[in-house]
Structure formats: structure tokens, C-alpha cells
């Protein structure tokens, strides 16, 4: 019984990790190639979730909604890159932080204006609803398993894209020497827009997938954004491999910490105190892990361009 | 740099300082306590941002987590006062306090210690890592405050009666404003002293060229850590006043939006300027009040204005009025 619960939590942690990877991959790609810190990445996650919820409600199909989330987030990303972000590449990080903070305000209030403050709901598609038995677990929600699968596919797809294709070659070249690849005749502005749209589409996908588990509402992107920051700081900013490892560390640490800490502390503290202390500690756990990683590896586990 | 020659910036500073003092006094005479409250809000936010400006403006340390210190200061006021009301002693039989000087000392010490720990770890990194790690530490404390039930958790903590200051009736809006204004001016004076001191020169030099500072035998790390701690203390003091202004403290004081707003105040006014935070806080609170009266969606317009300032008017308000900064 306990074992099955633990296995279930392990899978939940994996699922959270996979979601975080979708967010973190875009963030770290954008930082790696353009040197830009993008706080508005969480807004693109929100755009994806809203697009999916609205289109799914209109057409009755989750899958069309999912496709819409990719398209809308990528389009929103490309437009934002064209209008605002490209003016920020040669600015310092403070300007980037402020401008993208301003974008968050605009996106959040804009969404509240259009959709109101009430959350929208997005149903899990019938094909993926229900639960399946797994070894050691009586029944695990199929949808969550599917998310883990999607995350694994995207990770593999990104690996192929970056290591095997012409676009990937340009991205890698952009990461190691921006000026040189521009001098070699690569259209760097288009490359930047494409990378930004790609990162945005991944964030939108994550938003749509999570939207069916939780509600779709304004501000949903911010907690995820900050977790994604923790992920890329642990993994090493600019490294996709670091983002994957960091995402799994954060997802598993957070989920298992919330599950295990209260009962572990119950062994040494009275039950009522243990619950409260355990919950507070669990909420802080990933940040403690991050601080420990940075104390020993100030540039993360897989420093890019070291 | 801080000589008393009447440069345009000095004149603007003087005007801002007088404006912030005269407006609420006049409003109070005309029986408009709400304007006094707005002015108090400006003074307290300006104080918090002046604290941040030590790290950000002088040291070039973009802390995206200064809400931590603002919130800790606020909770110092809330927690100490709550023990006086409930009559339950705190640790070591200490009974809490509703005296602002005691609260301020607690707030400043607590923020100094928090700043020391957070700064010691965060300053090992730089650039984007520093921004993100300070943000992450702030989130850590934020989630702790939400999940720790003893002092209200997510709901926050009310201060039933505003804390007291010897010889001043803090219940009167104007008296409380004058108290906050006095603290603000004292701290701006401290900022000016720091900026023109040897310490300030080393701090600004470390911002401009770390290697050169290190090569003359000064450790940038130590200088920056000291600046970060002082900065945390000043922002914490503002937090204690803010809690007393609202008679309420909640985790939202610790949220990353708060950290962002503190940076925004500095940028709106002008980075590294002595009165930048004052100008920024004035603009911000007036926007909030004026736009908030017209539309609920005032933050949308704030976002657009902020975007415009960052992209096109990098010197902020004081930069527009006084021209280019002489230091940089």
C-alpha cells in the first residue's frame, strides 16, 4: 500500500519534471542563443493554455485545441520578439528583466480583460481519460502517463533537432559565437525569431497539457516560470541537457518532499507539529537544493560555454 | 558628486523633497487624510527602493528578491505587535513590542542576517544567475510564509492598533507621515554619504570594472556583501513602516511582484540617482491612483509605460528632467 503510494508519487514527480522541462528548454535555449532572460515565458505558457481551452470549447476537440495552443504561443512569441525582444539583445540584464516584467503585466491584464477573472476549464480528452494499472500501482491516470510520454518525445525531438538538423547546427553556432555566424551570412534575425517562437511553442504546449489537469487562469504561468528558473539555474543556464536533468531533480524533489517530509518528521516530532513543519520545509526544499548546488557549482551542473 | 553646488539635479531633488513634504501638510490642513496616506505610501516605497538602490544603483547588483527584506521587516512589525495583543510571550519569555524603535531594531537585525546569508550565497554568482538566485530565495521565504500557519499563513496578519513611537501620536495620519518622511530623508542622507565614501567609491568601481578593483587589492566580494546587507536592512526598515501603514502584513509583501515593483520604482525615477526612488515612487503611486480611478486594468497601462521607459527613456524621470548622469 505504502509502496504503491510512493510509486505513484514518483510518477507524479516525473510528470511535474517533464512539464518543467518543456518550460525550461525554451528558457535555456533563448538564453543560450540570444543571451536574453525572458520573464514573460510564463505568459506564453498562459497563452497556450487559454488558446487550448477556448478552441477546445469551440470545436469540442482537445486535439484541435492542442494544435491551436502550439500555433498561438509560437505566433505570440514571434510577434513579441519582433516588436520588443529584439531591441533588448544588446541591452544589459536589468533592462531585459524590466521589459519582460512589463510584458507580464501587459499579458496578464490583457488576458483578464478578454477572458475575465474566472478560470476556464479544459477537459481531459476521452481517449486519455481513466486510469491504467501499472506494476505495483493499482491504477494511475492515463493522462499523466501521456504527459510523461509527450515530454520524453519532445526531449528526444529537441535532441535530434539540435544535433542533426541544419537549424540545430545554426542554433549551436549561435550559442558559441553570435557575431561569427552573422558574418558567415546566416540570417541571424530570422534565426532569433525562430528560436524564440520554438521556445514559446514549447511553453504553450506545457500550458495546454497542464491546463487540463488544473484550471486555466490568469497568473497560472508565474509559479511555473519561477520553478523553471530554478531548473535552469541548477542545470546550468544555456544547457538543454542541464534543463532536462534539472527539471527531473526539481520535479522529483518537490513531489517526494511534500509526500515524505511530513511523515519522516513524524518520527521525531509530535504529529501536529510534524505536519506543519514538514509542509513548510517541503515548500522550501527545491530552493535549498538549488542553494546547495550553487554553493558547490556556481554555474550549475552542466555549465554551458564553460 | 554630493557637493552642494546647485546643479539641475540638485534643484530637482530639492523640489521633490519639498513637494513630498508640503503636499500632505496642505492636504491635511484642507481635511483630506487620504492624500496624506498616499504621500505616506510614496515615502515608504521610496525608502524601500532607496535601500535596493544601494545594491542595484551603486553596486550594479540586480537583486530580484528584495521583497524578502521588505516582507521580513513587515512581519517583524506584525509578529512583535501580535504578541503584545495576545499576551503570549515569544521565545525566551520576550513579550513582543508595540514600540516602533524596538520593532525597527528587530526588523533591521533580522534583515541584516537574512541579507548576509542570501548575499553570501548569491554573490558567488553574477549576471543572470544572481538575478535568478535572489528571485528563488525570495520565493523560498514566500512559500515558507504561506505554509507556516503560526502567523496567519496565507491570510496574513493584522496589526490591530498602529504601533507607537515615543512622543508622536502615530494614529494621526500626518504625524505618521512626518515620521516616515523623516526616516526617508535620513536614509537618503545615508545613501549620499555611502555613495561619496571610500566604501561607495570601491563599490561603484567594482560595478564598472571588477578586475581593476581586485588588482588594487580590494575584494569585490566583501564590498558587495556589505552593500547587499546594508541594502537589505534599509528595505527591511521600510517593510516595518509599510506594515504599520496598512496595519496588515501578508505574504504578498514577499512576492516576486513586490520585488519587481521595487526595481520598477528605481527605473521610473532613474537608476543610481539620489532621488530616483522618490521620483519613481511618486510616479508609481500617482499612476496607480489616477489610472486606478479610471480603469481596473491600470497595470496594463503601467506595463506599457514601463516598456516605453525601458526601451526609449533609460534615464527615468530624473534623467529626462536633469539630463545625463555625470557618473555611470
Automatic annotation (TrEMBL), chain A:
Superkingdom of this protein's organism: Bacteria
Question: Which residue ranges does UniProt annotate as crossing the membrane?
Answer: 16-37, 44-60, 66-85, 97-122, 142-162, 190-213, 225-252, 264-296
Identify the main location: membrane
Question: What is the membrane topology listed in the Swiss-Prot or TrEMBL record?
Answer: Multi-pass membrane protein
**One MF annotation (Gene Ontology) recorded for this entry:** transmembrane transporter activity
Q: What PANTHER family does this protein map onto?
A: ABC TRANSPORTER ATP-BINDING PROTEIN, BRANCHED-CHAIN AMINO ACID TRANSPORT SYSTEM PERMEASE PROTEIN LIVH
Name by which UniProt lists this protein: Branched-chain amino acid ABC transporter permease
Amino acid at each position: 500500500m505504502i509502496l504503491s503510494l510512493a510509486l505513484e508519487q514518483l510518477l507524479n514527480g516525473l510528470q511535474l519534471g517533464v512539464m518543467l522541462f518543456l518550460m525550461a528548454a525554451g528558457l535555456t535555449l533563448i538564453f543560450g542563443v540570444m543571451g536574453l532572460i525572458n520573464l514573460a515565458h510564463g505568459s506564453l505558457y498562459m497563452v497556450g493554455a487559454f488558446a487550448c481551452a477556448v478552441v477546445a470549447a469551440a470545436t469540442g476537440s482537445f486535439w484541435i485545441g492542442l494544435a491551436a495552443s502550439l500555433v498561438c504561443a509560437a505566433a505570440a512569441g514571434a510577434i513579441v520578439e519582433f516588436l520588443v525582444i529584439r531591441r533588448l539583445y544588446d541591452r544589459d540584464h536589468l533592462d531585459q528583466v524590466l521589459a519582460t516584467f512589463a510584458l507580464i503585466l501587459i499579458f496578464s491584464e490583457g488576458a483578464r480583460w478578454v477572458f475575465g477573472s474566472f478560470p476556464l476549464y479544459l477537459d481531459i480528452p476521452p481517449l486519455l481519460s481513466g486510469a491504467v494499472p501499472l506494476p505495483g500501482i493499482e491504477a494511475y491516470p492515463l493522462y499523466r502517463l501521456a504527459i510523461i510520454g509527450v515530454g520524453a518525445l519532445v526531449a528526444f525531438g529537441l535532441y535530434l533537432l539540435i544535433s542533426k538538423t541544419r537549424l540545430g547546427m545554426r542554433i549551436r553556432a549561435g550559442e558559441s559565437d553570435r557575431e561569427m555566424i552573422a558574418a558567415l551570412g546566416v540570417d541571424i534575425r530570422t534565426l532569433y525569431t525562430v528560436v524564440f517562437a520554438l521556445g514559446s511553442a514549447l511553453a504553450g504546449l506545457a500550458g495546454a497539457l497542464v491546463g487540463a489537469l488544473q484550471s486555466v487562469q490568469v497568473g497560472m504561468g508565474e509559479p511555473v516560470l519561477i520553478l523553471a528558473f530554478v531548473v535552469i539555474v541548477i542545470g546550468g543556464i544555456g544547457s538543454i541537457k542541464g534543463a532536462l536533468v534539472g527539471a527531473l531533480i526539481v520535479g522529483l524533489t518537490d513531489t517526494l518532499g511534500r509526500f515524505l517530509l511530513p511523515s519522516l518528521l513524524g518520527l521525531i516530532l509530535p504529529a501536529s507539529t510534524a505536519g506543519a513543519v514538514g509542509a513548510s520545509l517541503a515548500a522550501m526544499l527545491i530552493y535549498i537544493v538549488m542553494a546547495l548546488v550553487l554553493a558547490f557549482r556556481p554555474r550549475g551542473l552542466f555549465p554551458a560555454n564553460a | 558628486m554630493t557637493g552642494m553646488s546647485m546643479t539641475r539635479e540638485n534643484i530637482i531633488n530639492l523640489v521633490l523633497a519639498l513637494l513630498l513634504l508640503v503636499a500632505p501638510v496642505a492636504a491635511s490642513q484642507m481635511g483630506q487624510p487620504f492624500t496624506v496616506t498616499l504621500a505616506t505610501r510614496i515615502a515608504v516605497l521610496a525608502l524601500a527602493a532607496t535601500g535596493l538602490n544601494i545594491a542595484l544603483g551603486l553596486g550594479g547588483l540586480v537583486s530580484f528578491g528584495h521583497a524578502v527584506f521588505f516582507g521580513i521587516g513587515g512581519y517583524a512589525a506584525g509578529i512583535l505587535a501580535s504578541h503584545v495583543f495576545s499576551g503570549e510571550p515569544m521565545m525566551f519569555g520576550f513579550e513582543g513590542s508595540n514600540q516602533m524603535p524596538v520593532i525597527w531594531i528587530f526588523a533591521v537585525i533580522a534583515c541584516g542576517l537574512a541579507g548576509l546569508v542570501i548575499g553570501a550565497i548569491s554573490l558567488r554568482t553574477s549576471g543572470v544567475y544572481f538575478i535568478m538566485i535572489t528571485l528563488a530565495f525570495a520565493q523560498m521565504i514566500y512559500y515558507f510564509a504561506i505554509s507556516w500557519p503560526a502567523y496567519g499563513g496565507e491570510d496574513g496578519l493584522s496589526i490591530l492598533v498602529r504601533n507607537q513611537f515615543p512622543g508622536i501620536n502615530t494614529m494621526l495620519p500626518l504625524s505618521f507621515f512626518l515620521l516616515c518622511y523623516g526616516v526617508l530623508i535620513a536614509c537618503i542622507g545615508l545613501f549620499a554619504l555611502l555613495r561619496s565614501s571610500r566604501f561607495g567609491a570601491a563599490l561603484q568601481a567594482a560595478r564598472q570594472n571588477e578586475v581593476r578593483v581586485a588588482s588594487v587589492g580590494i575584494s569585490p566580494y566583501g564590498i558587495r556583501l556589505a552593500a547587499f546587507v546594508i541594502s537589505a536592512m534599509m528595505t527591511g526598515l521600510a517593510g516595518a513602516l509599510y506594515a504599520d501603514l496598512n496595519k496588515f502584513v501578508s505574504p504578498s509583501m514577499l512576492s516576486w511582484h513586490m520585488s519587481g515593483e521595487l526595481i520598477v520604482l528605481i527605473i521610473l525615477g532613474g537608476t543610481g540617482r539620489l532621488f530616483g526612488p522618490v521620483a519613481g515612487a511618486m510616479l508609481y503611486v500617482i499612476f496607480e491612483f489616477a489610472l486606478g480611478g479610471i480603469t481596473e486594468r491600470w497595470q496594463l497601462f503601467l506595463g506599457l509605460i514601463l516598456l516605453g521607459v525601458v526601451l526609449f527613456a533609460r534615464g527615468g524621470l530624473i534623467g529626462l528632467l536633469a539630463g545625463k548622469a555625470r557618473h555611470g
